[in-house]
Write a structure and sequence with these properties.
With 508 residues, the chain is an alpha/beta fold. It has one domain (57-429): Alkaline Phosphatase, subunit A. The protein is built from 14 helices and 18 strands. The structure holds calcium ion. Calcium ion is lined by residues 64-65, 104, 256, 349-350.
């Protein structure tokens, strides 16, 4: 007989042994015990659920005229920026982020409005409101979704140093903010050791204002200057947040000229004469069309090598001072207990030349001027370095998306959200930037930088192989071997401009 075989009567007996007592025979105490046991079992299985979180806050920090080449997290060996580096170590650092206009006015109007400069027609120093009507700007979109949006100092264009000396709003857009604060500072008039480097070959010119290369190692502490006041105000605001989610936009005006900062920030760079200058390649400028020679050069600024090195030192000291103010904001955010629920963005409105090709300042469409530092730390996202081409125009849709807000279809930027989970992905084939004052257009892809002056290219073309020649020394546009590439880019640029002008604003 099979040992597993069980006779029917035996099966019934076994079932009776293992069967639970009949429900009807349970006493109230049995019911209670079972309920308590089941409750305990259920509680042990349920994951801990936090209280419903509010929408993430946004802390947007923007420097003025800051080239990524001056930051240690982007590889600068001389200028140390420990606070921006700290944010970079916690967030996603974008290595190929481009502004849409290579000077303040068009760049800021573009990323705040969500449109390219040639869509709104804001190519100068005005705010985009007359062109966008009632459409919400970036911060205004957040106000419409229950945020408290605050501006501290320069977000839309302000004239530096003039509007900072006066402590006025500049080209601000009032509807973009729940509240706003300006930071007045002495700028070039700050007491200290000052020198005008530009247009001053005999050294007789005093320290002057305006858009001039002036270095001041200033007496006193951080709070003498606008950026110190900006940081102090923002720290106060971060300590007082409660209730509504916040969109806090903090604009520093350094390292924009004049290069004014407290004396202690200059010390690491003394003597200025020891600071390195970029490599100078003989005949570097010979293949550049006249429109491609930047508006400020060592020659037209009459800056000898001593002045050039001091310009670099003054700029680095201004960067170090601005970096210290960024540190105050990051510390205050940590102390506020809001850091885990706050998206932090650090960037600049455009880059800056520090002597590459003997160019100085902005406007140029070379990488040092058209690229910007961009670091975004979003809650729950791992630190990363992302090589995808991205644009400042992408900030509006990206941050709206990360905060769970609707992303208006009319916006011309792209949502970068997926890059925070997959930093090796790409979101665009090209980056597009313009320098309206020189009628310049840049189309930059993985391999090439194509720069054209005039919509019909009448003022010249530059083409750089960014893999073989990342410092952009050799303009290939006139070489027969690259004629097809130039023609291809000319068509791509025309198509891009058509796309930019196809929008809900009407033709511009
Ligand atoms: Ca600027």
């Amino acid at each position: 007989m099979d040992s597993t075989f069980i006779m029917p009567h035996e099966r019934k007996r076994l079932l009776n042994v293992f069967a639970p007592p009949r429900w009807t025979s349970w006493t109230p105490w049995t019911w209670l015990s079972v309920l308590v046991l089941l409750s305990l079992l259920w509680l042990s299985q349920v994951p801990v659920v936090a209280a419903p979180t509010t929408k993430p806050n946004v802390l947007f920090i923007i420097a003025d005229d800051l080239t990524l080449t001056a930051l240690s997290c982007y590889g600068n060996p001389v200028c140390k920026t420990p606070n921006i580096d700290r944010l970079a170590a916690q967030g996603t650092r974008f290595t190929r982020a481009f502004c849409q206009g290579t000077y303040c006015g068009p760049s800021r109007a573009s990323f705040m409005s969500g449109y390219y400069p040639h869509a709104t027609g804001v190519l100068g120093y005005t705010n985009p409101r007359p062109k966008i009507g009632a459409r919400a700007t970036w911060s205004q979109h957040f106000i419409h979704h229950g945020y408290h949006a605050t501006r501290v100092s320069k977000i839309f264009h302000m004239g530096v140093p003039g509007d900072i000396e006066r402590g006025v709003d500049g080209a601000d857009d009032e509807a973009s903010w729940t509240e706003r604060f300006n930071s007045q500072g002495p700028e070039w008039k700050a007491p200290g050791d000052g020198e005008t480097l530009e247009g001053n070959p005999d050294g007789k010119k005093p320290v002057v204002g305006g858009n001039t290369f002036v270095v001041v190692a200033a007496d006193g502490d951080d709070l003498v200057h606008a950026d110190g006041k900006t940081a102090a105000k923002a720290v106060k605001l971060l300590r007082a947040t409660a209730g509504k989610p916040f969109f806090l936009a903090v604009g520093f005006v350094r390292p924009h000229v004049p290069f004014v900062s407290p004396r202690k920030y200059h010390e690491p760079f003394l003597p200025y004469s020891k600071l390195p200058l970029p490599e100078k390649v003989p005949g570097d400028g010979d293949d550049i069309p006249k429109a491609g020679i930047n508006y400020k050069t060592s020659a037209n600024m009459k800056m000898d090598e001593r002045r050039q090195r001091k310009a670099v030192g003054g700029y680095y000291a201004a960067v170090a001072y601005m970096d210290a103010q960024v540190g105050k904001l990051l510390d205050a955010l940590d102390q506020s207990g809001q850091a885990e629920n706050t998206i932090v963005i650090f960037t600049s409105d455009h880059g800056f030349h520090l002597g590459e090709h003997d160019f100085w300042a902005k406007v140029s469409l070379r990488d040092e001027s058209a690229m910007v530092p961009l670091i975004i730390k979003a809650p729950g996202k791992k630190p990363a370095v992302c090589r995808s081409l991205v644009e400042l125009l992408d900030l509006y849709p990206t941050i709206a998306s990360l905060c769970g807000l609707e992303v208006p279809a009319r916006l011309q930027g792209k949502d970068l959200s997926k890059l925070f989970d997959d930093p090796n992905a790409t979101v665009r084939d090209t980056a597009f930037s313009v320098a309206p004052s020189s009628q310049g257009f840049l189309l930059r892809d993985d391999h090439w930088a194509y720069i054209q002056y005039g919509e019909d290219a009448a003022q010249g073309i530059e083409l750089y192989d960014m893999e073989a020649d990342p410092k952009q020394y050799t303009n290939l546009a006139a070489t027969p071997a690259h004629a097809a590439k130039v023609a291809e880019f000319q068509a791509r640029l025309a198509a891009k401009l058509r796309e930019v002008r196809t929008n809900d604003l009407g033709s511009k």
